[in-house]
Structures are given as structure tokens and as C-alpha cells.
Amino acid sequence: MSNEVLVFGATGQQGGSVAAALLQAGWRVRALVRNPGSKQALALRDAGVTVVKGDFADADAMRLAMQGVYGVFSVQPSSGQGAELGLSDEDEERFGIAIADMAVHSGVKHLIYSSTAAVSSGPTGMGHFDSKLRIENHVRTLPITATVVRPAAFMEMLLMPGFGLDQGEFNFFMRSDQPMQFIAVQDIGAIVAAVLADPLRFGGTTFEIASAAATGDDLQALFSQAAGRPITYSRFSDQVLAGNDFLRRLAELLDAGALAGRADLGALRQIHPGLQTFESWIKGPARYSFEKALGTPGAWAYGTADKN
Q1: Nearest 5 degrees, angle CA 122-CA 265-CA 222?
Q2: Helical segments of 169-215, H only
Q3: Domains of the chain by range and CATH?
Q4: In what side-by-side order are the strands of the sheet with 153-154?
Q5: pLDDT tens-digit profile of 8-38?
Q6: What tens digit of pLDDT does each residue of 261-289 get?
């Protein structure tokens, strides 16, 4: 039986995390990339990944890439990431369903689909979340061993420009005492590797994944300690939310519980004992990005921290 896994989005953060974790766990990794000559693709090749040219719209390339692999990790950019990075909601749904169908027809043994924790309670009314729920629902109808993971908001998103770190403050969705779960991108790969290693346990399951939870007050303390100076936290003001429909709807989803996260952190730590805490994350993989964010002004632009 093949021990090779095809990873979509391998030049992005989430797929890149999965590719790295699978290589470390002894899997062979194949990646479909739009530009094999890009810096990210060349880094994958140098790490031992087999790079195949193609994209989501190239059905023939996707079929070729799937030939003979044991597993497929499927993730697509969404419209919530902006026009440059994301697909339309319709495109995302179409490509996610096409990949799942091809996995069945190609004889893939285990399909991992990465969705979002936002849909754990059902439709949200926001297209770039609900497209993922429709892909999930299609995957569950297929005759294939499949696992759906639902990542929480990325910790890395907190270090995007425009949240005020460069001005000694931090503005986000939570109220000061309102907890929200987050996941370090690095942990996604480790959890997916564990899922692929145990199909009997994880096949047919859907579960949320996260690394840790934090309130606004927690982030204030964390960022102040890491910066060595006070960083004050406040939720986006009512004026800001009233002037930005997208931010307002996300805040409403958090207040309603859809974005708060319900991952079982204790169970996830059993799956992946190295699950990041906010403290280990900011001292380790996020240290450079945090220091850069402290000195980088800019406007808030959703999605630049999560390319796929």
C-alpha cells in the first residue's frame, strides 16, 4: 500500500504545515502547485516533496496528482481571504466537491477535509463559511474513509497589520472576559498526521481542532509580557463595527457562540502532546512575526495571515 499523501495548499500556511508534519512522520508527500518555480514550491521540493504542476481549475492535473496516493488533504482558499488570495464561494464549493469526488474515483483510502469551526452549529449566513459546510455535507455522502477537521481561528491572524500592536494596543473581536479558541498553524499539520496514522479511530469523524483559548484580557497580558511594555486590549468599537459589515457579522457570530470554539483541548492534547499554548507560540514560531507586527503600521485586511 502506498504511503504517499497528496496535499493541496502546500505553498500556503495550512497545507505547508501538513506537508511538513507528514514528512516528519515518515510519509511521502506530493503537492499540487500552480507555479513549480516559485520560492515556496522550490522549498517544498528541497524538503523532499514531489511537486506536480496544476491548480484547482485543472481537473486533469488533479487526477494525475492523485494517482497511486494513499491519502489526500483537501483545503481551498475562501472568499473571506480577499480577491487576491481567495476563490468565490461558488468556486470554493465546486473545487472542494470535485477533489472529494476525484479521491473516490482515484481509489484514495483516506480523505482529510479542512473546514472551519465556525460551522459547528450549522449555517452561519456568511458565504465563505457556509461553502465549507456544504463541502462537508457532500464528503459525508461518499463511499470513502473521510475525516473532517474544523480549525479554530488561526493564532497567526492576530499578528496581521491593522490591529494596533504598532500603537501599543490591540483590537479584536472578543470582549475583555469573552474566551475564544485559536489554533497555531503548526498544530494543524501534527493533528492531521495523527489522523492519517489512525484511520480506524478517525475515519468517519468530524471534530474541531484548536490549540488554546484566550479572552481579551488574556491577550493583553500575553502581548504586554512579550513586548516588554504595556499593550492595552479593547474590542472593536461600536463605531468600527457599525462601519464595517464584515467585522460586525463576525463579532455577532462570536457573541452567538459560532466563532468561540468548542474543541476538546484535553482530547487534542492526547492526540498531539506538543499542542501549542499561547506562551509557547509567541516565544517560538511567532516570535519574529510578533516583533515585526509591533513596528508595522497598516490597515486591517482579512486573510493575509491565512493563504490557505
Answers
A1: 105
A2: 185-197, 199-202
A3: 4-153+184-209 (3.40.50.720)
A4: 153-154, 180-183, 212-214
A5: 999 999 999 999 999 999 999 999 999 999 9
A6: 999 999 999 999 999 999 999 999 999 99
